[in-house]
Amino acid sequence: GAVVSQHPSRVICKSGTSVKIECRSLDFQATTMFWYRQFPKQSLMLMATSNEGSKATYEQGVEKDKFLINHASLTLSTLTVTSAHPEDSSFYICSAWDSAPNEQFFGPGTRLTVL
Amino acid sequence: GNSVTQMEGPVTLSEEAFLTINCTYTATGYPSLFWYVQYPGEGLQLLLKATKADDKGSNKGFEATYRKETTSFHLEKGSVQVSDSAVYFCALRGGGADGLTFGKGTHLIIQP
Asked: Considering only CB atoms, which chain A residues are within 8 Å of B93?
């Protein structure tokens, strides 16, 4: 299947700083990528849909100014957690939609810890 | 809105036992249904899917049938192995490029 990478895999930062997470589709072009958040022992929650060349669509309750999404190319979407606080600590997972098999492929996730 | 409910875990079975993980959903229209598996330390992988009523998805000995009348997509396997130990997520998708709605996940533990 198609491969999606995320970088970094793990990041620890101080409260008040910003953190950028990259999501790349390595062997296909993805006009649409998705960002999810997973709390310990809980499900993945869709945060936003990222469309190449346009503004992201955020799910209800997700602050767009807090979680900045940029999808500048067909193989890269970035999520920036601005002014991070301890409650932002979580596992962030991206997926990329491949239209050919009409399937989403998931990245391995990024563990964010805010001190 | 859409929602997915699956049985809480952990589910602990002996090797070669029969497995059922229940999943029911609420959705408008005709969603596609999925089972994803997450092995320890790895990302989510698609296990199987079904895109319309009465479709049966199957892979690696696992099966699930899209039942519209009961809004269910239960996962089954006739004989589990230790290597099947993982977290299993049931999910639905409304349209082709829509995000997924996930259940809470079921942690499956297979003992030798």
From this structure: 104
Give chain A positions within 8 Å (CB) of B44: 44, 93, 95, 106
| Mean pLDDT per 10-residue section of chain B, whose length is 112 residues | 90 97 93 93 90 95 97 97 96 86 95 95
Cβ(A31)–Cβ(A99) under 8 Å?
yes
Gap between the Cα atoms of B97 and A102, Å rounded? 8
- Number of CB pairs, chain A paired with chain B, less than 8 A apart: 52
B61's tokens: 């000995």
Question: How far are the Cα atoms of A75, B5, B21, B80, B107 from residue B90, in angstroms, in the given order?
Answer: 27, 8, 9, 18, 12
Residues in A closer than 8 angstroms to B49, CB to CB, are 103
- Cβ <8 Å between B43 and A109: yes
Query: Are A69 and A48 spatial neighbours (Cβ–Cβ below 8 Å)?
Result: yes
Q: Which residues pair with B76 in a beta bridge?
A: B20, B63
Alpha helices in B25-79 (DSSP H): none
Strand partners, A41: none
Tokens coding B50: 């079904």
